[in-house]
Prior knowledge:
Elements (H helix, E strand, L loop, with lengths): L2 H12 L9 H17 L3 E12 L2 E4 L9 H6 L5 E8 L2 H13 L1 H30 L4 E3 L15 H8 L1 H5 L2 E2 L5 E2 L3 E10 L30
Antiparallel strand pairs: 1-2, 1-3, 3-7, 4-7, 5-6
Helix pairs in contact: 1-5, 2-5, 4-5
This protein binds iron/sulfur cluster (SF4).
Iron/sulfur cluster binds next to loops.
Amino acid sequence: MSINSKKKAEVLRYLGYRNQKIDNITDRLIEDAMDEIGVLAKERYIYKTFSINRKDDELSLHGSKLILDGNDIKKHLSKSQDCILIAATLGHNVDTKIRYYEKISMTKAVILDACATVAIEEICDKICKEIENKLQAENKALTYRYSPGYGDLPIHVQNDFLLTLDAGKSIGLTASSHSILIPRKAVTAIVGIIDIEESKEKRSCMSCNKYDTCIFSRGGNGCGD
Ligand code: SF4
């Protein structure tokens, strides 16, 4: 499968297609939207490594005010001494264009939104690959990405997360009073550093990097893809 076909398959997944045949018009709209994202997206990202402090059942990061509440993130990082905070964004142009299409064609808006989701996930995959390439020499790897709002990790940690990375200044990524990322087509995520052997564990939805956007499952066993 070519890179473009893989990308299109991902877009269709986010649009709710499951092996159905798509008509020529939709196919064309997706191709156009993928091209449009290529022009509109201004990729920016930052990541930093932190040692994990575990004290009185509280999980925090050395040199940061960020407290990682909830049992799910504790489980996710249970095999890590260090973790990496990642923030990435496609920039404001993509949001502006989606809003514009919402006024004139909801179909185009929904398709552009799905293409943007695929694009930001691709950037996150690229960042993780870049980090893993560096970690390989130490026989280390990464867990899947885990974002504020997953499981019982509260979404309201978003502001402290962004402050820890100084993401506002460094990549122009902030959050609203309701912890919604601005620009919206953005991702914040935590990955744990683990021994390479640990990284071969069975995939589950809770540890999957598509958990935030996957419409097929919200927990339990993964799809195994
Ligand atoms: S593992 Fe779960 S969350 Fe991930 S893509 Fe499969 S069904 Fe979706």
